[in-house]
Design a protein that fits this description.
Blueprint (H helix, E strand, L loop, with lengths): L4 H4 L3 E6 L7 E8 L11 E9 L3 H18 E11 L4 H12 L10 E9 L14 E8 L10 E2 L3 H7 L2 E2 L6 E5 L2 E3 L5 E3 L2 E3 L5 E3 L3 H9 L3 E3 L5 E6 H7 L1 E2 L3 E2 L20 H11 L5 E4 L6 H8 L3 E4 L4 H19 L30 H8 L3 E2 L8 E3 L2 E5 L12 H6 L2 H10 L6 E7 L6 H8 L5 E7 H4 L10 E7 L2 E8 L1 H9 L11 E7 L11 E3 L10 E3 L8 E6 L4 E5 L1
Parallel strand pairs: 1-4, 1-18, 5-17, 18-19, 22-23, 23-24
Antiparallel strand pairs: 2-3, 4-6, 5-6, 7-16, 8-9, 9-15, 10-13, 11-12, 14-15, 20-21, 21-22, 25-26, 26-29, 27-28, 27-30, 30-31
Helix pairs in contact: 2-3, 7-8, 8-9
């Protein structure tokens, strides 16, 4: 994510993130073969998308580092919305207060604006406690000057009948007697020719001139004791609606419909629509670095906002890409006003050999298998042992930093080290292998320096540097040919998917059942793939597999993506 700072520092107008909640659970996506009628579980299996299991300090360090970068990306008038739940919201609130500010005593400063309660589900029967049916959304701004448009909510019939009980005899109009005072001292005013003083600690909300005008309009109501109130008419109030408050109970996730993509923790588009409309304008830049199913990007495209997205999970990238292509096609068929600009083009980038691991949830097992490490299932310090060395696997798909070693240092067996040091002062108390995907150049030296009381033998295994010697996954294979003016895909063998299906004892008759999408660039320039064909069928249909080659075609590049979101790119 730090790669974005060079170009987008201070340029992002709105950030919404729905990060892991530290819920101590693994989140899975159901994988089903294309083109089959589902009658049971034999043609599907669950694939882990990400794990949400953390140690105490690891989660907060993970979030602090990313929130710091997000603050630097945010514009001076920008807002950030952090979606969380009861697991860690109190800790995250403290971090956000530190980075953005607590809003001040009057709430008008920079930083904290609202703690929004979103009811995400109906009643729960949680044993021994109240049902947990809500998430928390923390809203912060970078400065006191920020973009915000209040949403007005339509009134319900029950609300109207219960609030507007008083009827004006002359017109029959319903109204509510609203207060005509506000906090703070103030002078008296003349009502119906009589001087009235406001209650202690209050002042009249209107000048004498405005009060006289309200009297002429018959907009002031007097109680039986002569206290004046302002008439708030139901018909005017209904037309305007009421201001949205900080408890949102009117948006529930859809269980069916076109926006459902089967991704775990997917949020409803209406929720993001409310946030994006409130704190951004058309053409503004919206960012979500935990984009998951791509709801933020999808809504931003529909609302005419530019967008950025990032995710470590390849399934999220593929799901979002497919979703955005579908929305772009829908928008291209609509007749739009000249000033209604939609940003339907987008590019996908891989950073730091992103796709080296298809799924970070499986990375630890793949590394253990490839490096022939003897795993430790119960250890909170080491992931395993190899050739007498203790092995620690760092977070994958990003460069390992000194901060990543803090948890390891906190849990080292120092009493054992003291004993080994006494017995063999000249020998290392531990032989350590740190496995990572890139690292700070002084990682090992810094680790040894901070543990200078003990002699350590530290080895760094950099998978990015040494990956040519590793076999971590089997590449897909395909047979793609030109035949009589057509591009024909004769066969496709996604080896990892086939391996999973064999475990499920599934027999696949047609390779197209294994394919999520096919993209074709008829004139590939060797650098950037620009698909002219995007064959993305619905859940019950199959890709075509045969395509007419245009007369001006040059080098053809084909990208085939399977149901696990793994892609094979072939030039023809």
């Amino acid at each position: 994510m730090s790669h974005l700072l060079k170009k987008y520092r201070g340029q992002v107008d709105l950030i919404y993130i729905d990060p892991p909640f530290d819920s101590k659970a693994d989140y899975k996506k159901s994988i089903k073969l294309k083109g089959q009628v589902v009658t049971g579980d034999s043609n599907s299996f669950e694939e882990k998308q990400y794990g949400d299991i953390w140690t105490n300090d690891e989660y907060l360090q993970f979030m602090y580092e990313r929130l710091t970068i997000l603050r630097d990306l945010l514009s001076e008038t920008g807002s950030i919305f952090l979606h969380c739940d009861y697991h860690r919201n109190s800790y995250l609130r403290i971090i956000m207060d530190e980075l953005f500010g607590n809003g001040g005593q009057d709430g008008k400063g920079s930083g904290f604006k609202n703690e929004i309660i979103w009811q995400r589900t109906g009643a729960h029967n949680d044993a021994g406690k109240y049902g947990i049916v809500h998430d928390t959304i923390l809203w912060y701004t970078k400065t006191p000057t920020y973009k915000f448009t209040m949403e007005m909510i339509p009134l319900t019939d029950d609300h109207i009948s219960s609030r507007f009980k008083t009827i004006e005899p002359e017109t029959g109009r319903r109204f509510y007697p609203g207060p005509i005072t506000a906090p703070g001292d103030g002078p008296s005013r003349i009502f119906r020719g009589k001087e009235l003083f406001p209650p202690a600690g209050r002042h009249w909300s209107y000048s004498q001139e405005n009060i006289d005008e309200l009297e002429r309009q018959n907009r002031i109501y007097y109680s039986s004791t002569g206290v004046p109130y302002l008439k708030e008419y139901a018909d005017e109030y209904t037309e305007q609606g009421r201001r949205l408050q900080s408890i949102w109970t009117d948006i529930l996730p859809s269980k069916t419909g076109s926006e459902i993509v089967g991704y775990p923790t997917q949020k409803p588009e209406k929720l993001l629509e409310r946030i994006i409309k409130a704190c951004s304008e058309p053409g503004d830049l919206v960012f979500d670095c935990f984009m998951g199913s791509g709801t933020t990007q999808a809504v931003a495209m529909k609302l005419g906002r530019r967008f950025l997205g990032a995710d470590i999970n390849l399934g999220a990238i593929q799901t979002t890409t497919k979703r955005l292509i579908g929305i772009a096609q829908e928008l291209s068929q609509q007749t739009l006003d000249a000033d209604d600009v939609k940003y339907t083009g987008f590019e996908v980038y891989n950073v730091n050999n992103y796709d080296f691991f298809r799924n970070p949830v499986e990375a630890r097992d793949l590394i253990i298998q490839a490096l022939e490490i003897q795993p430790f299932e119960q250890s909170n310090v080491w992931d395993g042992e190899k050739d007498g060395r203790m092995v620690k696997i760092m977070p994958v798909n990003r460069i390992a930093t000194k901060a990543d070693l803090e948890e390891l240092k906190a849990n080292l067996p120092y009493k054992t080290y003291e004993k080994r040091k006494e017995e063999n002062p000249s020998q290392p108390v531990e032989k350590i292998t740190i496995v990572c995907m890139g690292h700070e150049p002084d990682l090992a030296a810094s680790f040894q320096k901070e543990l200078s009381d003990y002699k350590l033998d530290i080895e760094i295994v950099d998978i990015l540097r040494d990956k040519s010697e590793l076999e971590l996954k089997r590449e897909a294979e395909a047979e793609v040919v030109r035949e009589g003016g057509k591009l024909v895909i004769r066969a496709f063998y996604p080896m990892n998917l086939l391996q999973k299906l064999s475990l499920q004892k599934e027999y696949v008759e047609d390779w197209r059942q294994l394919v999520e999408s096919i993209m074709i660039d008829w004139n590939y320039d060797g650098v950037v793939m620009q698909p002219a064909v995007t064959d993305i069928p619905d859940k019950k249909s199959l890709v075509l597999g045969v395509y007419d080659i245009p007369d001006d075609a040059g080098t053809i590049k084909v990208k085939i993506t399977d149901l696990l979101s793994e892609s094979l790119e072939v030039e023809v």
